[in-house]
Amino acid sequence: MQTLAVFYFSGTGNTRYIAQLLCEKLASRYKAELYDVAEAGDLTNAIKKCDLALVAFPIYGSAPPIPMRKFVHRYAGLWKGKRVAIAETQYFFSGDGAATIGRTLKKYGADIVGAEHFNMPNNLADCKAFPIKNGGELKKAVARAEKRADAFARRILRGKKKKRGFSLPSHAVGYLCQRKFWWKCEAEKRNKLKINAARCVGCGKCVKQCPVQNLVKKDGKAAPLGGCVLCYRCVNLCPMKAITLVGSEPPREQYRGIPKQ
Ligand SMILES: Cc1cc2nc3c(=O)[nH]c(=O)nc-3n(C[C@H](O)[C@H](O)[C@H](O)COP(=O)(O)O)c2cc1C
Questions:
Q1: Is 254 in the pocket of ligand 1 (CB under 6 A)?
Q2: Domain 190-244 - what CATH class?
Q3: What kind of fold does domain 2-178 have according to CATH?
Q4: Which residue of 21, 34, 50, 213 has the fewest CB atoms within a 10 Å radius of its CB?
């Protein structure tokens, strides 16, 4: 049995769900170990000893999340010759989502054995333009992604190196339609998490669940520190709908994530 190390970041569970699904589908050959890159400590040994690494992350404005970028750069010296598969999750479009991290890994010498995009439910709950799907509609979207996961895993097992998002047109579209503008938005919003003090009841749920410890309790209310990674976990979790980030109004509906089986 070979070892599969899954390195993932997931704000609201979609990417973790796909990562776990891929582990099951690759189980005939690989024994999997999962690592949340925002929470795990030193991952040197995990990278060194694995036969295959799966890197999984959600896309934000056709760019990978900050914790995933930091993870790939931090272990720059370990990717040389490493077999890496990439799974990127998105609501509907990224252009070259998987390749954003794939290009960096390649630069560090990784052998990219496959890359795929998985359309999953939207979690950007405070933007009216992108509706939130929970319940039955969510199930349909996830079912399509599950089929894609099945095909992706089969390709990896057969050694077929199809790499979604790696073509020049995908690169151009990802950059010109989104990433070019995204960097400014990301930099601006990092310290613009808005917590409505009148709504916040100080339950501490967001403080406990923030993957990068960007929230603290101050005078009985939640308060951001300025290092938000835009994952939307707190926006979707807050029982009082008190948190807003990219949008200007609190979410009408929050993304509840994929129900546990
Ligand atoms: C700040 C932010 C930006 C996003 N940008 C995009 C995007 O450019 N294209 C897209 O299709 N989905 C976008 N999404 C949707 C997420 O990528 C998608 O819902 C993803 O599956 C969430 O994964 P997670 O539950 O593992 O965090 C964005 C979500 C957030 C929070």
A1: no
A2: alpha beta
A3: Rossmann fold (3.40.50)
A4: 213
